[in-house]
Amino acid sequence: MKNNRKKVAAMIAAMTMTAALPATLAFGADHVLPSVQFQIGSLSAVDNDGTIALKQAPYIEQGVAMVPARAFAEGLDAKLTWDPIERTVHMERSGLTVLLTVGENSVTGTYVKNVKLPAKVVIKQGQAFIPAKSVADLLGASTTWEQASRKVMIQAKGESVSHTFKFDQGQDGWEGGFADLPVAYNPDIYNLSFDRELIKLEDNSTNYGLKLNGMNRSDDLFMFAAKKISGLAPNTTYDASLAFKLYTDQAGGMVGVGGALGEAVHIKAGFVATKPEVVRLDHVHEVEPFYILNADKGNQATEGADLKIVGNMVKPDDTVEGFQSKTMNHQATLKSNAAGELFVIIGSDSGYEGLTTWYLDDVQVDLVPKG
To answer: What is the pTM of this model?
Structure first.
């Protein structure tokens, strides 16, 4: 039976599950980024609200696309202030600023001072024209040029997002779950639990963590905690980084059934665009129905496409009794879903056939949009 289960686990590790069924073992509005599109020689521009009529068409000056400042700012939801005395254009968006002067080719901004522009700011029929790409860069927007249609698209970039999770005041929306075990498992002998508890440290009365506990009686057991990160730009690629503390009491070099108590329990982490859930897999290769994860985590010492190994359960100092913290890190690049969400998941993939207990604390998630 164990060999069959390992075959099933290996097969599952190669799959990317797409159908999300109810999370039987779980414990525990779209946002459109501002943009504006100009066409060289056209008296119409297009932003997220529709068509904009222009008094003067965008043009090319020494290879530089020049666009009207007012339409540019409105398309990016930037605040524009015109000073007729100083003949300056001031723009502000998401904490970034630029100050441009008519007739000058220098710009001052949040992070720059008197930087040279590729073309001067000019007035045409009462409209200030600016070099599109240079100003867009300073306001945190990207520029795309379509040579065939002579169109320039300016797209605001998504905001960077950072979250720190400490569990002294609450669970912060984290959920736990268990996979790689039979549907008909006996809860009396698996001892599965996911709770927010005081970390079992000497004289600790204030430091809480998320505790996962389980007895591996199925040759494999995956215990995990997951959290939804929302409010991101939809369908946007992010560089994601994760750091956390895992508390373990397992010494290294021990011997156990199925593997060492510390080394054979692999800690994995990852980011996914679909909520991590436990799904049921029915009768594969004469194996009884099993619960599996709807993401590719690999199996034990093998990584998956979604989750990577970031460490194991061996504590830093074998000479000290009790639980100790280990800092672990993970980086990935992936795209948010259509609702502007990503999910972080941290878990233990066990080959050791015994009881495993660990605490999760001090989780730091940083997401930086690419492009």
So the answer is: 0.66
